[in-house]
């Protein structure tokens, strides 16, 4: 025989029903907290509540048994419904352990990746450093060769300019000598012409005087 909540309220007086529900409510809370991780919920001391119903509620033994079983079944159903959404301790421990293992693997992978990346960066740095050293040495050699070639070209150019300057000096001296010779020759020619002109003038003057004297003699 099953009795619902409305049937219980109609059979049990309000004061006795409240007094009965309060200890059951306390028991329900304690049972849920104590048995939330179990597969099946076990409610202890049901006989005690049967006796309370029989002594204080004027229920028969069968009615008390039905009431206690109904309340117990309700408690079990509620706890089972709540327990579906709760994780078991073993499952939580397993998940925690798995997360730790995954975290350790991830940490090892990150450390290995960072180590490999560091080695790669270090090798790349060494390679770039060696390339820079080689390039620096080659650049120094090229600069030295360029300076040597420039100095050689400058020395050759200085020698060529010096030779040309010496040659030009010789040409200038030769030209000066030729000019002096030409001037001397011109002076000699001028002196010779002067002498000839003087001789010619003297001859002309002498001839003129002779003609004048001859003309005078003819007139006299």
Automatic annotation (TrEMBL):
<feature type="transmembrane region" description="Helical">
    <location>
        <begin position="197"/>
        <end position="216"/>
    </location>
</feature>
<keyword id="KW-0175">Coiled coil</keyword>
<protein>
    <submittedName>
        <fullName>Fmp32 protein</fullName>
    </submittedName>
</protein>
<dbReference type="GO" id="GO:0016020">
    <property type="term" value="C:membrane"/>
</dbReference>
<feature type="coiled-coil region">
    <location>
        <begin position="118"/>
        <end position="145"/>
    </location>
</feature>
<keyword id="KW-0496">Mitochondrion</keyword>
<dbReference type="GO" id="GO:0005739">
    <property type="term" value="C:mitochondrion"/>
</dbReference>
<keyword id="KW-1133">Transmembrane helix</keyword>
<keyword id="KW-0809">Transit peptide</keyword>
<dbReference type="Pfam" id="PF07798">
    <property type="entry name" value="CCDC90-like"/>
</dbReference>
<keyword id="KW-0472">Membrane</keyword>
<dbReference type="InterPro" id="IPR024461">
    <property type="entry name" value="CCDC90-like"/>
</dbReference>
<keyword id="KW-0812">Transmembrane</keyword>
<dbReference type="GO" id="GO:0033617">
    <property type="term" value="P:mitochondrial respiratory chain complex IV assembly"/>
</dbReference>
<comment type="similarity">
    <text>Belongs to the CCDC90 family.</text>
</comment>
């Amino acid at each position: 025989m099953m009795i619902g909540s409305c049937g219980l309220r109609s059979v049990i007086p309000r004061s006795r029903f409240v007094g009965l529900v309060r200890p059951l409510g306390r028991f329900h809370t304690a049972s849920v907290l104590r048995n939330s991780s179990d597969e099946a919920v076990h409610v202890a001391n049901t006989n005690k509540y049967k006796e309370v119903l029989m002594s204080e509620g004027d229920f028969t033994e069968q009615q008390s048994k039905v009431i206690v079983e109904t309340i117990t079944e309700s408690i079990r159903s509620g706890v089972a419904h709540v327990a579906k959404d709760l994780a078991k301790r073993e499952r939580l421990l397993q998940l925690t352990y798995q997360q730790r293992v995954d975290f350790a693997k991830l940490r090892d992978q990150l450390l290995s990746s960072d180590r490999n990346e560091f080695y790669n960066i270090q090798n790349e740095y060494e390679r770039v450093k060696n390339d820079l050293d080689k390039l620096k040495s080659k650049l120094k050699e090229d600069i030295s060769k360029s300076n040597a070639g420039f100095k050689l070209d400058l020395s050759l150019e200085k020698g060529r300019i010096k030779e040309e300057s010496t040659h030009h000096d010789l040409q200038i001296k030769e030209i000066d000598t030729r000019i002096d010779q030409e001037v001397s020759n011109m002076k000699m020619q001028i002196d010779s012409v002067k002498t000839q002109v003087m001789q010619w003038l003297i001859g002309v003057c002498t001839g003129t005087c002779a003609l004048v004297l001859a003309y005078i003699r003819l007139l006299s």
